[in-house]
């Protein structure tokens, strides 16, 4: 593990000209003053189609562990969204369609591991989750358009299980593991989860008929509580459910939602300020599209585009699922087939030109930028739409990170050079409005030459039990999962064994982070004793000084 971590950044501008226009965009790069020397890389990218980045990065949208049912969906859902988009724009690029379809098939097979005996789906393999069952069912139903493997009877059984959990009031509450506290916590009368389940039912044509009474009861619950829905996250999902249902309150809900939005960047962007603002803003955009307010949706699209990672995905599974879906739905309405514009790029004392026409739907243009550049000026003239991005990165020393977890490591004396045993403890650093994390992961990475056996974890604390243990990269890394973390100490002992002889051992590291908010983390580096050549060489290969 190096002493520094690479910090990827991206600045984006989206434009949509329905008539011939000319506009200039300025991008300022946010490079930390403490960035390591020689670590900066800057690249300018022109995407004539909104989802080109996503299409080109399908196989590495999110490089996160997939050891639970919800995480696995991030390998599954984006393929559905991209296939919807490719079909909507009439793409003839069969290799992309084949790629997405094959990955969809793999994701489907993996997800079946988390199906419970009662037809529900669980975060782990120990019981169903209302949230995850709704998520999987709505995704599987859409996937069935593209792969024959999806068993529609299985989807129907999942929805049957789901509706059986409805209260007499019409509300849904979580009965399984809580990993998405804003969605599942029910602290605000269960509005978010109830709306989410209703959307899953309403997006399934068969379920709309079969479970009409359940939907009616759920909508009754939302309408009775409508005046009290003031949290933007709850309101955004409830508004989407109302538009799917064609409910009499749908227009009032959209107006209320607009009133709670936050315009930014000189009114060119719009979002909803709340704990899960990407997800809330994406649901809002879906409602705008359903209301056919396409032009009003463009500022929302601009803001969402600016939140994406370099791969085109978003920070969390649900952000990626809803964010890509919302962007796709609007992108379907504003086709890139009319593109005809010229881009003038200025940086320092240099100028570059790019011309884009309607044949360049999936052609991405790149330009390397000198590392000492601080500002780029981009002028666009013509008609059509496109995505302008500056992707850059730099390395930052670990000492400059702000922690939201307390992480402590204690190497134990085993009396053997071949055994590494370490006690790991972590807890969440609470703030007034943030007393517990979402699902928390601790990744323990081992020095060169060390691997774990089949039972690497022992002596775990029981106040907040470990939910899952995943061994990765041939036993050189272990990931420990918790439903969440608070102020309590969460400890365990991990043991690894030296299987390979390595003289120069690099430092290794342990990291703890909130799965739904990667900015909440802590990282610690540790070392094992270096070995000299005489300790690791074989007899015939040892230098002379070892034979004395």
Automatic annotation (TrEMBL):
Tell whether Mitochondrion is among the UniProt keywords.
no
Q: What CDD domains is this protein classified in?
A: A2M_2
Specify the domain of life of the species encoding this protein: Eukaryota
Annotated Gene3D superfamilies:
1.50.10.20, 2.60.120.1540, Alpha-macroglobulin, receptor-binding domain
- Disulfide bond is among the record's keywords: yes
Q: Which SUPFAM superfamilies match?
A: Alpha-macroglobulin receptor domain, Terpenoid cyclases/Protein prenyltransferases
Q: Which UniProt keywords apply?
A: Disulfide bond, Signal, Thioester bond
Gene Ontology CC annotations of this record: extracellular space
Describe the location of the Alpha-macroglobulin receptor-binding domain by residue ranges: 437-526
Name the InterPro entries for this protein: A-macroglobulin_rcpt-bd, A-macroglobulin_rcpt-bd_sf, A2M/Complement_sys, A2M_TED, Alpha-macroglob_thiol-ester_cl, Alpha-macroglobulin_TED, MacrogloblnA2_CS, TEP1_CUB2
What is the recorded name of this protein?
Answer: Alpha-macroglobulin receptor-binding domain-containing protein
Species this protein is from: Anopheles christyi
């Amino acid at each position: 593990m190096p002493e520094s971590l690479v910090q990827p950044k991206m600045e984006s501008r989206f434009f949509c000209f329905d008539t011939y226009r000319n506009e200039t965009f300025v991008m300022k790069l946010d490079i930390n003053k403490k960035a390591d020397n020689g670590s900066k890389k800057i690249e300018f990218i022109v995407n004539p189609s909104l989802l080109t980045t996503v299409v080109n990065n399908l196989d590495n949208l999110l490089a996160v562990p997939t050891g639970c049912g919800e995480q696995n969906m991030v390998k599954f859902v984006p393929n559905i969204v991209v296939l919807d988009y490719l079909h909507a724009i009439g793409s003839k690029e069969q290799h992309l369609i084949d790629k997405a379809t094959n990955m969809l098939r793999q994701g489907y097979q993996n997800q079946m591991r988390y199906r419970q005996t009662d037809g529900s789906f669980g975060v782990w393999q120990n019981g169903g989750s209302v949230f995850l069952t709704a998520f999987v069912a709505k995704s599987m139903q859409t996937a069935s358009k593209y792969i024959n493997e999806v068993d529609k009877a299985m989807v129907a059984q999942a929805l049957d299980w789901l509706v059986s959990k409805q209260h007499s009031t019409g509300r849904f509450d979580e009965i399984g593991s809580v990993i998405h506290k804003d969605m599942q916590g029910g602290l605000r009368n269960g509005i978010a989860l109830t709306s989410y389940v209703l959307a899953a039912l309403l997006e399934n044509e068969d379920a709309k008929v079969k479970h009409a009474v359940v939907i009616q009861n759920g909508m009754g619950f939302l309408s009775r509580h409508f005046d009290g829905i003031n949290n933007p996250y709850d309101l955004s999902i409830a508004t989407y459910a109302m538009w799917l249902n064609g409910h009499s309150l749908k227009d009032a809900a959209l107006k209320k939602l607009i009133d709670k939005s936050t315009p930014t960047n000189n009114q060119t962007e719009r979002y909803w300020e709340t704990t899960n603002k990407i997800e809330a803003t994406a649901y809002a955009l879906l409602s705008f599209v359903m209301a056919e307010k396409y032009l009003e949706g463009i500022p929302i699209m601009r803001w969402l585009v600016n939140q994406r990672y370099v791969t085109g995905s978003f920070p969390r599974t649900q952000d990626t699922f809803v964010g890509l879906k919302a962007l796709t739905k609007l992108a379907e309405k504003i086709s890139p087939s009319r593109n005809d514009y010229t881009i003038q790029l200025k940086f320092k004392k240099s100028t570059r030109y790019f011309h884009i026409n309607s044949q360049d739907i999936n052609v991405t243009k790149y330009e390397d930028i000198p590392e000492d550049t601080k500002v780029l000026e981009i002028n666009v003239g013509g008609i059509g739409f496109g995505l302008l991005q500056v992707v850059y990165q730099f390395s930052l020393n670990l000492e400059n990170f702000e922690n939201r977890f307390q992480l402590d490591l204690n190497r134990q004396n085993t009396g053997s050079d071949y055994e590494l045993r370490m006690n790991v403890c972590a807890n969440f650093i609470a703030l007034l409005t943030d007393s517990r994390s979402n699902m928390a992961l601790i990744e323990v990475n081992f020095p060169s030459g060390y691997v774990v056996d089949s039972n690497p974890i022992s002596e775990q604390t029981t106040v907040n039990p470990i939910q899952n243990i995943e061994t990765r990269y041939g036993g050189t890394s272990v990931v420990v999962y918790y439903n969440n973390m608070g102020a309590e100490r969460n400890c365990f002992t991990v043991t690894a064994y030296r299987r390979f002889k390595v003289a120069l051992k690099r430092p290794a590291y342990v990291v703890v982070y909130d799965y739904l908010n990667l900015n909440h983390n802590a990282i610690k580096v540790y070392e094992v004793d270096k070995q000299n050549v005489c300790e690791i060489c074989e007899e015939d290969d040892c230098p002379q000084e070892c034979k004395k």
